[in-house]
Amino acid sequence: MGQPAGEFSIFTSEGLECKLTSGVATIRWLVDRITWQGLNEFRHICGLIHEDERVQVAVLKSRGSDFSHGVDLSDKELIAAVAKDGGKTVAEVGADAVQAWANLPFCTIAALDGYVIGGGACLAMASDFRCATASSTLWFPEIDRGMYLSWGIIPRLIHEVGLPMARRLAILGEAIPLSDLPVDVCRITENLDHTILALTRQLLTKPRGAVGLIKQSFLDHCLAVDDFGDKDIERFMQSIDSQAFAALMNAWLEDRNR
Fold first, then answer.
1. How confident is the model at residue 177 (pLDDT cuts 50, 70, 90)?
2. Under 8 Å CB-to-CB from 157, ≥6 apart: which residues?
3. Comparing C-alpha atoms, which of 119, 113, 155, 150 is closest to residue 131?
4. Strands ordered across the beta sheet of 187-188
């Protein structure tokens, strides 16, 4: 496809790195939990590769044995951001990060292993393709912290896994093996790297312009509900302004710090 040879570093920090190799941008989480800084850095990376004509496919993966433990709710910068305006900015930035990843004008792949939780699970479900090991588990535990599942993920979740499974994930808060999701939601493999390599090679043969237009049609259909974004943020703010949220969060943090 005329891509330059070699590897190019696009972004590097303590929590994230992004490298470009032969048309494939690989974003790798270097930490288990998403910090406020990391979330903003992820948005920045999406902006960089969105405008980079060399990129034809983007792959999101992690350095550790688990794809993501979700957002670090004990992160002081995150707590300060929530306190500033009742969670409005946090909900907006999270939704922007998911949308920036989903709206890239080329296909995205999530390489999933181990636990795929919360904010990390949102990014996984906003990907165009998912490849996972048989031991991978999808989990949205927000409901048991008294939180509304925000970041604009609910309509995407319904479109990807169907309403009955979305109820189990978002309302019951069940941790569900990715191998139990409906057929074609995720490619289950014994060799994650090999499967992703084969898929990226296939995608590299597709014209970026046409792929982007098709993706936009999919996204238009997925987010067809009027004013969903504003309602999503309002519901998140309402949920974390409740006594139930305060009690459940305090109990969870105490248990985690034991």
1. very high
2. 125, 166, 169, 170
3. 113
4. 7-12, 16-21, 24-29, 57-62, 107-112, 129-132, 187-188
